[in-house]
């Protein structure tokens, strides 16, 4: 089998793996803060043997870099709190499609704070994506305030992960992906742990089924999904992976139909199609313009 075929198979495995993230969350009865905390901390435990070999890189980090790492982890923790919480109130379709607005928020922030160029063709993609988003939100308004609150939480998750990526943009120039992810995951997990303690949420009193789901969230969408994507970046163009990741909401919607019995309305379907097409066009134009690939870190948040 040719190397290109193996990479495409690996890409398909990664998209399928991340698509299961929303399903595991829906299956769980645990609070969003607990789900996010154990997903991150279990991932940290699984990564520790590899990170131990790279510990000298952590010793060389400056005080400013540590401060930025803590800030990045803080917003990643807020991302998990918002997005995972959204799945308690709205459908998998609405939550996943709205979450994919993250790359657009990243580039808006890059334009405002880093003065990165944004071509007018990319703005067309943004407008198409936001039109699709408005259709989904309009549909959820009819379903009641609960679904709309879930939409808000998903958009909050997209915004906070965008801040997390913008902070990490310069850090990733000098810090390897594994070391960066390891430290940020620890900080985000501790942020969620603090939130759970302050909120009075139990940390340990969960049945074996829940612990199995916590572990599955760490292994399937994180290890076989996001970390696999980052390994593939050595061999596959970033734009290929970015566009492939747009298959995550599609995969999650299909899985939700068969495993959760969630149906997609016509308006949700059309809005989701417009949103995904708009984001794909936006990424394609941005890549052609040579703008920095700040969404690469987006892969670790879904």
Automatic annotation (TrEMBL):
GO cellular component: membrane
Name by which UniProt lists this protein: DMT family transporter
Compartments reported by the entry: Endomembrane system
TM segment ranges: 37-54, 66-86, 92-114, 121-141, 147-167, 179-199, 211-232, 239-260, 266-283
Membrane topology designation: Multi-pass membrane protein
Family: Belongs to the EamA transporter family.
KW Membrane (keyword) present: yes
Keyword line: Membrane, Transmembrane, Transmembrane helix
SUPFAM superfamilies: Multidrug resistance efflux transporter EmrE
Span of domain EamA: 13-136, 148-282
Species of provenance: Paenactinomyces guangxiensis
Pfam family name, one: EamA
Principal location class: membrane
Record-linked PANTHER family: ACYL-MALONYL CONDENSING ENZYME-RELATED, EAMA DOMAIN-CONTAINING PROTEIN
